[in-house]
Every structure is written in C-alpha cells, then in structure tokens.
UniProtKB/TrEMBL annotation:
<dbReference type="InterPro" id="IPR036237">
    <property type="entry name" value="Xyl_isomerase-like_sf"/>
</dbReference>
<dbReference type="InterPro" id="IPR007801">
    <property type="entry name" value="MbnB/TglH/ChrH"/>
</dbReference>
<dbReference type="Pfam" id="PF05114">
    <property type="entry name" value="MbnB_TglH_ChrH"/>
</dbReference>
<protein>
    <submittedName>
        <fullName>UPF0276 protein</fullName>
    </submittedName>
</protein>
Length: 292
C-alpha cells in the first residue's frame, strides 16, 4: 500500500457534522445566504467542465462549506481498464476544489467496451480482493489522495459469493487504506431484498476504526412489490432513520452524515427539517449539537 494523503489534510475546511447533497434546484438558496448545513456533497462528474455556471457555484460555495466530491461514473470494479480521461478530469477537479473528502462506489459499469450508466454490484468473492486492492491503489496513487468506497444497493445475489458486502468492503479498506462511505439506505435496501439482518451487517461496518468510515449517507427508497428500490426520490423512511439511530448508539454519532435527494427535489426547507431530525439523533448519542 502506497503512502497517500487524506483530502482533509489539504482542504480549506474539515468535514464534520450534518451535510446535504447540493442540487441545482437549491443553488439560489445557498447563494443568497448561509444555510444551516455543515457541509455539501456534489457528484463529481457534474463539475468536470473547466468553466460554466455549475463550476462557478461550486467554487463560490466551497468558500463557506466543506465539500465532498462523490463520483458515480468511475466503476472501479469493472473488468475494463479504468478510464484515464475520467481520472484526469477528477484529478483536475480535486486540485481546484481541494475537497475534504473524495469518494466513489464499489461497483462495476463497463465490460468489453460497453458502458452501462448503472452502479452494478460486484460478486463478493475473496479471490477478487487482491485484484480490487490493486485497482484502489492505482486510483489513489493517480489522484494523490485517499478515496472512500460506498456500498451500493443490490437486487440479486451471486451464487458463488463467499462474503457479505460488509465483510468484503471492510476487508478491502483494511488492505488498501481506502475509506468506507456507509450508505445506510443502500444497506437497508439490499438487506431487505436479500432477507438478511440489516443490523448485523451494519455492525460489521462499525467494527472498522471510525476514521475509516469517512461519511454516512441517508436517503429514501420506494417499495415495489416484494422489493425495495434505491430511488433517492423520497423522504427518509422510519426504517432508515431507526438504523441510523442504531449506528449512532454503537459509536457512529461522530461520523459526518448527509442526506441525499436525487429526484423529485423538494424545497430546501423540507430537507432542512430532515437534517434537524438527524442532528437530534446524532446529538442524543453524543455526536454534536442538536442545533446548527
């Protein structure tokens, strides 16, 4: 494992407290005045362009808020070689924004030169860990910083999987030095679909040193028949909130946490109300102030 630099070591602000995924609909709210949000996360690919309004807004808001760059297109677990063009754009963005954190998804999205615009789950097999550790090293060395990898939602299980997702991702983190971005909504969706105890899987993540869990994500989902679908287009469900409360009660109250809404975007005031509920849960477990 090569020596790498944590983004927070160079960022203008550290990542802490309760954050929100920045979406275009809320640009005016954030530009008009400082909002009661501790940090912002953006999808990296939306800001790859060297100019334009989106980049202008991001560079303005990074003066007031710590920023986390969250990628959705790298596909680190793809069979195809990693895209050098993609990595170069990401590296340039990191250099200019100086984010407090950089993350990607533990997924694949390309094979045989065909790109799928999806976060496709990997087969959780021990014999893939060495190869994937090398891929993480390649990315971290190229970017010059540590990345975190997020658990994704899944709807099928591979017959030859010999590890749970939490076992696989935490083992990868220990081997490569990468962080873990723990998406509690994704964990709940996957464990419901696979009929596995979500709390038991969550405890496997929480067995990591807390400095390896760089962020926690919360979001909503949809019920469709017997399956749950990770849609990020609805308020937080009681089940996701309860699972987050459980995580806080078991040591995760100090981990930076944020709410994602990717579709059916409500007024910012609705999301701020959800953020306040998250703050109160965090504070009750000793993770910070209930008000911001």
């Amino acid at each position: 494992m090569s020596q790498i630099v944590t983004p927070a070591a160079q960022a203008p602000h550290p990542l802490s407290g309760v954050g929100l995924g920045l979406r275009h609909a809320h640009y005016p709210d954030f530009l008009e005045k400082k909002q009661p949000v501790d940090w912002l996360e953006v999808h990296s690919e939306n800001y790859f362009s060297e100019g334009g309004y989106d980049r202008h807004v991001l560079m303005r808001l990074r003066e007031d808020y710590p920023v986390s760059l969250h990628g959705v297109g790298l596909g680190i677990g793809s069979a195809d070689p990693l895209s050098l063009s993609h990595l170069e754009k990401l590296k340039s963005l990191i250099r200019q924004v100086q984010p407090a954190a950089v993350s990607e998804h533990l997924c694949w999205n390309a094979a045989g030169g065909v790109f799928a615009n999806e976060l496709l789950p990997l087969p959780m097999r021990r014999n893939l860990l060495g190869w994937l550790t090398d891929r993480v090293d390649q990315v971290q060395n190229f970017l010059g910083c540590r990345i975190a990898l997020e658990n994704v939602s899944s709807y099928v299980r591979f017959q030859d999987a010999d590890m749970t997702e939490a076992e696989f991702l935490t083992t990868l983190a220990r081997r490569s030095g990468c962080g873990v971005l723990l998406d509690i909504n994704n964990l709940y969706v996957s464990q419901w679909n696979h009929k596995v105890d979500a709390r038991a899987e969550l405890m496997r993540y929480l067995a990591l040193p807390l400095d390896q869990i760089t962020e926690i994500h919360l979001a909503g989902h949809q019920v469709r028949g017997e399956l749950l679908f990770d849609t990020h287009d609805a308020p937080l469900t009681d089940q996701v909130i309860d699972l987050y409360r459980f995580a806080c009660q078991h040591g995760a109250a100090s981990v930076p946490v944020m709410i994602e809404r990717d579709a059916d975007i409500p007024p910012l005031s609705d999301l701020l109300s959800e953020l306040q509920e998250v703050r109160e849960i965090r504070s009750a477990a000793g993770g910070g102030n209930a008000e911001s």
